[in-house]
């Protein structure tokens, strides 16, 4: 059938005409997948990097869903399976329209029970970092990198240290400055297990008491067999790393850090920056007065993010008098400049009269433009920056504070799927030839 389709397409239409037809088909992703599996010629056209860039511009992403613990099992020692939760408006998702265990996506590449009780830590570039329920949780850190699209799981060496608090970052593909254009998709299928090269950064705090806590930085590369030696993050006490993960921008992982004075008031704000390529790390003071950031208050949420243009942003949602407000700051890209500009101040329209949560959690998409907040009642709301409205998202049972959003680069997904299909077809033909 494949040979027949290829022969007919060669007789009837040249490549450039077929390519234009496929461009129009690409508005329906499922239809494009079916076309890519019709024959080898069409697969080659779809997998071409120039075709993918025409369909989906570089950096175009959308929210794939969340990885989260089951409702009522937010404690790390429950042993319950980690779930994929599709977004309510997704209709059909790459992993299905219903919640499903991560272990059912990572089939055959992880030992039975390995992911039971695992906690999602951070997702980036299509990879998910989870902390495994192994050993003494306070005296060691056990991690694994999962590639849901490739269906693979890589267990990392153990970090043996006192770990009262830990925050992580994962970098892959185009995050490495040395990679050239187009290499990101090639890297996706280069390793033997189908998982791209990656680096994991871990910041581990050794004490629950902020006044006594010391932070150490650990680095791991998939091309090396072990973690780096621990390096002290800060020269003195008083620094507090905000959030569970970093924002990744131009090959640098950046954490939001506040410095507390002797009265435990926020005195200064910084980003703690780590270069994935060189391992160099440094503190950068924010050119924003802490009073304007309103960091340290109980009611509100703050997070570093990367917008659709690849710019580092700081999102801050808080209540001023009786109005909920969203401030969006953007770091200027001038060489040698660390100046931040307040680009938007939005007075938000509450989802209902009397909405006045005591606690908020915020999730910001890497490049999809998705901005979600959740109140203490597990109600999730999507913020529309253009209309300044909050729209309730009907997640089944809500999301926990440990939920991690996963975005997808559609061009990379198509490339991987087409390449895997081509590899499987080649292997099948080789098996048939061998049998003959």
Automatic annotation (TrEMBL):
PANTHER family found in the cross-reference section: OS08G0203800 PROTEIN, OS08G0203800 PROTEIN-RELATED
Note the InterPro entries from the entry: F-box-like_dom_sf, F-box_dom
Q: What is this protein called?
A: F-box domain-containing protein
Lineage per the UniProt record: Eukaryota, Viridiplantae, Streptophyta, Embryophyta, Tracheophyta
The UniProt annotation puts the region (Disordered) at 177-196
User: What's one Pfam family here?
Assistant: F-box
F-box domain boundaries? 13-52
